[in-house]
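Long-time lurker, first post. I've been practising inverse folding by hand and with some scripts of my own, and I keep getting stuck on stretches where the structure tokens seem ambiguous. Below is the full token string for one chain I'm working on. Before anyone asks, I'm not after the true native sequence, just a reasonable design that respects the backbone. If someone could post their per-position residues I'd love to compare against what I wrote down in my notebook.
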């Protein structure tokens, strides 16, 4: 059987770079920070001691550089799990597929991928401007059912409890759940809340927000806030984490998602300076990541 990956499946541009990211294999570090907002890439790389390269194609901005001896790439994903499908597959291809032969390399590389994002809290006790590390990503979008993956027994039990407690309208989401990379999570303890992060396929109705559209499931937020299983609680909502954790599982990468809380949906508050909260998360996060 021909194991060569065809030109239509892995698209490499005239620069020898992968299609959407426009990054070549030698231009990517093995520790990667993902951010949603393309403008946030510079807010991270301005802390680098040296910047090696900068690329931009569509919403995907990539800066690679160093903090001390630690080589780090920061990549913007834009919003949503559909973009995570693109970014995680292309990051993986950059390290695990030989761009000359188009064959999967015999020795695979596991990347460390850490999301520094923003999020809305689902517990009254998690204030705006605080930080949450996602013990699990629980997807209410529909990316991961397209992939074959394995869940651990603990993940299956937690997902089962979720299905039992949280009503999802028929024909809606087919929830999936993945744990964070434990060895990365261990570095993010002091000064972080920890809990399950729910990943939604939208910002408004999929996160229970009403402007002019009417919700099909008005109890979603109450249901999520009230969920509990053993020591696990749902802490927050956002739009990428479950796909990062899920694609990390499928492709063999170590992933962690950390968020600055810019909204508290229970208290109905929004940060007075979300930019400052994100800047503080970047500084704290980089201090930890540089030492991992
Ligand atoms: C929505 O405003 C966006 O903010 C959050 C959500 O996940 C979504 O991408 O993360 P980022 O600030 O990292 O983009
Ligand atoms: N990002 C989200 O997806 N939701 C929020 O409430 C805040 C940031």
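-- Answer (accepted) --
I ran through it position by position. Result:
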């Amino acid at each position: 059987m021909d194991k060569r990956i065809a030109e239509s499946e892995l698209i490499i541009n005239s620069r020898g770079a992968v299609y959407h990211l426009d990054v070549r294999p030698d231009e990517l570090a093995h520790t990667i920070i993902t951010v949603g907002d393309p403008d946030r890439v510079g807010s991270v790389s301005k802390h680098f001691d040296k910047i090696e390269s900068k690329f931009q194609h569509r919403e995907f901005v990539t800066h690679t550089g160093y903090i001390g001896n630690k080589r780090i790439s920061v990549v913007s994903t834009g919003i949503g799990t559909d973009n995570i499908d693109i970014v995680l597959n292309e990051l993986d291809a950059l390290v695990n597929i030989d761009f000359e032969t188009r064959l999967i390399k015999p020795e695979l590389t596991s990347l460390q991928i850490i999301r520094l994002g923003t999020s809305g809290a689902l517990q009254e006790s998690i204030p705006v401007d605080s930080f949450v590390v996602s013990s699990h990503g629980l997807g209410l979008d529909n990316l991961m059912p397209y992939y074959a993956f394995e869940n651990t027994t603990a993940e299956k039990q937690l997902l089962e409890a979720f299905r039992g407690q949280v009503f999802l309208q028929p024909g809606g989401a087919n929830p999936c759940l993945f744990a964070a990379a434990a060895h990365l999570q261990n570095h993010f303890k002091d000064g972080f809340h920890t809990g399950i992060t729910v990943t939604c396929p939208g910002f408004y109705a999929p996160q229970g927000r009403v402007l002019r559209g009417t919700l099909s499931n008005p109890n979603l937020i109450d249901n999520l806030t009230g969920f509990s299983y053993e020591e696990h609680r749902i802490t927050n909502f956002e739009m990428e984490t479950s796909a990062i954790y899920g694609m990390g599982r499928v492709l063999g990468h170590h992933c962690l998602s950390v968020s600055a809380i810019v909204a508290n949906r229970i208290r109905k508050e929004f940060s007075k300076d979300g930019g400052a909260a994100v800047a503080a998360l970047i500084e704290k996060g980089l201090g930890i990541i540089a030492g991992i």
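A couple of notes from the structure itself: Helices lie at 40-45, 81-96, 153-165, 182-185, 220-226, 241-251, 274-289. DSSP finds seven helices and twelve strands in the chain. Happy to go over any region you disagree with.
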